[in-house]
C-alpha cells in the first residue's frame, strides 16, 4: 500500500521487517511515532542506535553485555562449577528473573538445525568445550527448548561433554503450574512422566 508521504512509507516498510510485525501493526506503530513529539522520537531513535553501538557479546558466555566480560561472568559470588547452557540471551534473562540459579551461563547463539543450514560450527559449541577443558566445571545444565532441534543439540553436546567426567543435567519439562492435564500435548505428558520424582 502506498502512503501519503514517502518517509512514512519507508518507516512502515522498515517496521514490518521486525519479527511478529505485519503491515497493519507496522502502520499503527508508524502513525504513533508520527504523533509523538520530536523529543520522544529522538529518544526512541537514540535508544535504537545505542543498542547497535554499545551492546555486544560477552567473550566468556556470549550473553548480551555493555561491558566485557558481562556482570554475571564477573560476579565472584556465582559458582564456576555449574554452567547453564541456553539457546539465546532471552532464555538466560528468563532464568535470571526466577532468581534461583547461582552458577554461570553459556549462550549457544542458536541450536543445531540442518534444515536451516545450522551445524556445529555455526553455534558456540567450541567455546563451551574450551570452558569445560579449562577445568573447574563439575556440571553442565541444559535449559534448551524441547523441540526436535533442541533435543538434537542436547544429545550432540552430551556426547561431547560426558567423556570429560562432567555431570550433564537438564531442566525438567512437564505440566506448568496452573496447567490443565486435558489440554497438555502428548510430548509434554510423556516428559512429565519421565521426569517424575519421589515426594
Explained architecture:
This protein is of the alpha/beta class and 199 residues long. The protein has 2 domains: 6-54, Helicase, Ruva Protein, domain 3; 79-173, Dna Topoisomerase Vi A Subunit, Chain: A, domain 2, CATH 3.40.1360. 43% of the residues lie in helices and 11% in strands. It has helices spanning 6-15, 23-35, 38-54, 71-74, 89-98, 125-133, 148-161, 186-194; strands at residues 56-57, 64-65, 82-86, 104-107, 139-143, 167-170. The strands form 2 sheets. The chain has a 4-stranded parallel beta sheet with strand order 4-3-5-6. The chain has a two-stranded antiparallel ribbon with strand order 1-2.
Q: Helical residue percent?
A: 40-55%
Strand proportion, as a percent range, falls in: 5-15%
Note the main sheet.
4 strands, parallel
How many strand units?
6
How is this structure best summarized?
With 199 residues, the chain is α/β, with parallel strands linked by helices.
Amino acid at each position: 500500500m502506498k502512503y501519503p508521504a514517502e518517509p512514512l512509507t519507508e518507516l512502515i516498510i522498515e517496521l514490518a521487517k521486525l519479527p511478529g510485525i505485519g503491515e497493519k501493526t507496522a502502520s499503527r506503530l508508524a502513525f504513533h511515532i508520527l504523533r509523538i513529539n520530536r523529543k520522544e522520537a529522538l529518544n526512541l531513535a537514540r535508544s535504537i542506535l545505542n543498542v547497535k553501538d554499545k551492546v555486544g557479546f560477552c567473550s566468556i558466555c556470549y550473553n548480551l553485555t555493555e561491558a566485557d566480560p558481562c556482570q554475571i561472568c564477573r560476579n565472584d559470588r556465582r559458582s564456576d562449577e555449574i554452567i547453564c547452557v541456553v539457546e539465546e540471551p532471552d532464555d538466560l534473562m528468563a532464568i535470571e528473573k526466577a532468581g534461583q540459579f547461582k552458577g554461570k551461563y553459556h549462550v549457544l547463539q542458536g541450536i543445531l538445525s540442518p534444515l536451516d543450514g545450522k551445524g556445529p560450527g555455526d553455534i558456540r559449541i567450541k567455546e563451551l568445550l574450551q570452558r569445560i577443558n579449562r577445568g573447574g566445571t563439575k556440571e553442565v545444565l541444559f535449559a534448551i527448548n524441547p523441540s526436535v532441534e533442541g533435543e538434537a543439540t542436547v544429545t550432540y553436546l552430551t556426547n561431547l561433554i560426558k567423556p570429560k567426567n562432567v555431570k550433564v543435567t537438564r531442566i525438567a519439562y512437564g505440566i506448568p503450574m496452573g496447567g490443565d492435564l486435558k489440554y497438555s500435548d502428548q510430548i509434554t505428558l510423556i516428559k512429565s512422566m519421565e521426569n517424575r520424582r519421589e515426594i
